[in-house]
Amino acid sequence: MKKRKYIAIILAGMMLLSATAVLGGCGKETETVAQTSSIILYDDTSEEETEEETEEETEEDTEEETEEETEKKTEAPTEKPTPKPTEKPTSKPTNKTSTSNTSILSAEDLESVLDEDIQKTTDTLKERFSQISVNSYTDYINNYSTIEKLYEDIATETQKLCGRLYQYTYEYAIVIMSSEKSSKKKYSDFEEIEDYIYEDACDEINDEIYEGLLDDMQDAFYEGVLDKDDDSSSFDDWWETKSNEYDIWYDTRSSVYDSYYDTKSDIYDFCYDMRSCLYDDKTDRAEKKMEKFKEKVEKVNSGL
Fold this sequence. Notes:
Layout: H1 2-23, H2 27-74, H3 107-130, H4 137-142, H5 144-178, H6 183-225, H7 235-279, H8 283-302
Helix pairs in contact: 1-2, 3-5, 3-6, 5-6, 5-7, 5-8, 6-7, 7-8
């Protein structure tokens, strides 16, 4: 394209020179025109070249920009941004095991509740026994329904008392596990359950009922007014009455023993399991032991 323009300029110059030779005197004017034409032609060419160069540069720039934009669009994102938390928690999550309505908030509370409950239960049963006036075989026969009912209630009230020991154990275990104490301190706190319930409370049931009240009733009835048949109508009646008294006394004593022994064993096993979990700092496993013992508590108390 540029070569053609240069040839056109040369031809125009040659034509002007020829015209100068013919015209002669008009050479100066022709020369001026030729110069002017050359300048004009040169200027037109420069503008065209500039426009072409500008267009080429623009096209190149556009192509480069397009390529850059395409690269940006096709480039895969490196990583999805992680959203920041919108709000800081205001409180710690609660323990999995829900607390129940209880006044047991410390070891002192546990000891106080146990003492009061056991004392009230045993005092009530002993008071009923003291109100039975039996000084002879005849008195025993006349008060037999009252005596029989007392035996039944001793067994039942002991079962209920032991059911409450399960409940007290569970409630205080909740207090321990819900505290901010370390696993090591919680481990030590479960020793308090063993001290107050496994040892003291169960031993008190043994002392006050199993070896206390029931021994007193045996002394008063089986080995007391029924020891001889002096006041009976016949030997057979006396022997049957005496044997029946021993059976009901023995059954009641066995029921009391089973109640507090099973309670003592279950509470010991529970405390042992909990302490093992805490010793290993396995709080999740301890929570499962809590749930299992809760089911035991509910089962024991469901039939009472």
